[in-house]
Specification:
This protein is α+β, with helices and mostly antiparallel strands and 164 residues long. It contains 3 helices and 8 strands.
Length: 164
């Protein structure tokens, strides 16, 4: 009987070792990649602030799904820091898939300097704005939480809402 117990224990030990090696995230896990920012649009103009929305796209290159816990970014338009955006809604991300993080950017009127307004008027005329996004995302898989840095600069087409 002792022999059967030792065989069973040895088998369970071997199975648990192989399972740990199969699920070893440190060797196979790849950091999700920043892809692009699209659909930048002005959504409201008030005396206290200007609101912009954009969609940031990233890609999960892993053979497993992950959970996006939160993201925080600082937004620079035409090289001027205009605001930040935070996303705290948890999102399940499928394996080998691209995913979208919606950004809502509040630009307070105190940031609306004359140089910023001049650069934005030039951007409205050209239909493009230089957007620099810097921040990080927090993701989780199997109890492992990682902070992923995000940084990219692009010249992005902008949409202006029709006022009339």
């Amino acid at each position: 009987m002792k022999r059967y117990y030792s065989i069973i224990l040895l088998s369970l030990f071997a199975i648990s070792l192989s399972a740990c090696q199969y699920f070893n995230l440190s060797n196979t896990f790849k950091i999700p990649e920043y892809k692009r920012t699209n659909n930048v649009r002005f959504t409201s103009f008030t005396l206290s602030n200007v609101t912009l929305q954009a969609d940031m796209f990233m890609y999960n290159p892993n053979p497993i799904g992950i959970l996006l816990l939160e993201s925080t970014t600082q937004i620079y338009l035409n090289d001027l820091l205009v605001g930040s955006s935070a996303q705290s809604k948890m999102v399940q991300i499928n394996k080998y898939s691209e995913f979208k993080i919606p950004l809502i950017i509040q630009v307070p009127s105190s940031k609306l300097s004359l140089s910023f307004l001049k650069s934005m008027i030039g951007s409205l005329k050209s239909g493009r704005v230089k957007m620099h996004v810097k921040g990080n995302c927090k993701i989780q898989k199997a109890g492992l939480t990682l902070n992923i840095p995000i940084e990219d600069t692009e010249n992005i087409p902008i949409e202006v809402p029709k006022l009339f």
